[in-house]
Amino acid sequence: MNDKELKIQRYRQENKTAIPGQTVFTGSSLMEMFPINKLLTEHGDSTIIYNRGIGGFVSHELLKVIDVCAIDLKPSKVFINIGTNDLSDSRIPISELIENYDKIISEIKAKLPQTEIYLMAYYPVNYEAAAENMKECLRIRTNEKIRVANTKVKMLAKKHEEHYIDINKNLMDEQGRLKAEYTIEGLHINEDGYRAIYEDIMTYVKEPLKRS
Q: Is the pTM of this model over 0.85?
């Protein structure tokens, strides 16, 4: 059993004792690595957020287990950050990513019509600050490609009448790249980077539900 399968199995077990009506974070490693519960504790905040991100996931993998990674928890809000690994793969066109993303949203809406879905803008990257072994990936997953994908995700949110949110401003340098001090290897975000966006994401976590 690989790492992804182990996490799915663990989440399936943890979901059995989850409290319905809370917030779920789901997606790939950029969501899994968000130390949201550590930050909540630091801020003395008792908000319940279940993190169901799985590192390495591409969009079709999340689609296959969206029940475990969102639906089974019966959340009031789901925050999704999926597709950056698709954007790193030159064989996967953005259209295929968006098609899978569309199905993910449709699946959630079909089973949880009252749940509000937040589609997150993809975080920027920093080629100049990248570790040598990441540079090849970042020649494919460029900030220009990310901007194009964000435009498509925004359109997807509009199509489904869901939320598109961009909390990237505190992560960016003056050239629109991920700040060098906030990245591990040019692509992933370190804890200080997540701290920089914590208050912005919590504004959306705490805003009143539109469909309540």
A: yes
